[in-house]
Amino acid sequence: MTGGQRAPKRSGEKVNLLGKSEAELKDFFRGIGEEQYRGKQIFGWIYRRHIEDFDSVTGFAKPLRTKLAEVAELKYPEVAGVEESRSDGTLKFLLQLADENKIETVLIPREKSPDDAGSLRETVCVSTQVGCPLDCKFCATGAMKYTRNLTAGEIISQVFIAQRYARKRVTNVVFMGMGEPLLNHEAVCSAIRILTDDNSINIRAKAITVSTAGIADKIPVIASEPVKFRLAISLHSLDEEVRTLLMPINRKHNLGKLLPAVKEFYRLRRDRITFEYILFDGLNDTDKDLARLVKLSREIPLKINLLHYHPLDHLGNLGLQVDPVALKLRPSSRVEEFAGELRENGVTVFVRSNSGEDIDGACGQLAAKNIRANKKSTVNQ
Question: Which entry of 22, 84, 104, 180 is annotated as an active-site residue?
């Protein structure tokens, strides 16, 4: 994995079964002198029933449960804090990992589905890295810098922790939290394989979206993966200079490389691409920008998610500095107008909600540098 490392493991530490595939669980049972089919059985107990200890595995005899407890565990992150939006009920979780690093996860309850106007969805926004190495100027996570990749178990655990608090069954998972998913694509794909398994929580593949800032050389790699999901591209400008200002990764993975990679993804998957586009006043909300997006829609089957910019003023409360470029960014007042003109030109466009904005849980606001002083959980587990 690019530049990352696994959570540290100490000598003699129990094996964490959370995040292991069915095949890996079968190998584990064989390794401890048990029948391989036990791996298939416990896969369902872990991922469908969401057990947290082996005493709950009533399908196993007591001696086997005792043996498992001696050599293995189901290690979830600690819920260090929960905040609830007073405006829309969005929940933001501060999770402390085994190595004391922290991440944030968001549960957006009863959100309308843009693909089905009559349906409601319960969406979990998961993180894939501790911090992020990309330094996008509009995103708070970049101010944390990068520490390490998350394991598949740490990714999956975010969904299951959110499910504990959800009023309904979780229906959608979006990889739009902290970190760049394609720089941790092996763990991300492993997590998706488990989440979409019939014997697991069984999230529909079309209800899982992986969002990337545009790591062009990784897009064909994930397109060839047998695991299915939807792809979203964090675009924000079709002007190379402006996009580089907003997203320094564009120096290496510029539009000249990114867009052909996206076209190749569509050729292989035949699944419409989502382009995410935060509107900034006077920077990427002009008529010329609109014309570029319309032209792109003629070249790639797509839909566009327009997002409001959420200023990063809260970073000071976390002991983090706001980038000088971010200080100059201002939300556009043209969001609805811009959306309307795109629709008039035949482009499928949705204006994303500001869910969780009042708790710094909206798009681009996640940053878990410190547990906030004097903040207490507002939700009982």
Answer: 104
